[in-house]
Amino acid sequence: MTAVVVDLGYPPAWATLAVSHDGQATLAASTGGTATGASSHVGRLLEAAAATLHLVPPAEAFPLPPVGSVAFHVLTVDGGRTRTVAEAELRSLDHPLTLLFSAVQAVLADLRPS
Q: Which CA distances in Å does 11 have to 68, 84, 98, 101, 108?
């Protein structure tokens, strides 16, 4: 796995989190503004993405999710994969991608200003 990109559909904008195997994370908002830095949780996010890769189907396109949803885009040497899930489902703790979503939230917390 080379990188994970997560698009979060929040009104009135989208946020995009990109993490790579070198430990760097970048958060960008569609309304402007970015935050970049290292996160101690990038490894956890990449491990969760690897563990759930079988749940994220191969894809040719990587569309933004609808508002209230999260799109997980996983980039591998074999190509890209994507899956969109309603955020409410991910917060239920019963969804198989909840572990991945939890790791995303940990990285986001590291990038937020203190």
A: 8, 17, 22, 19, 17
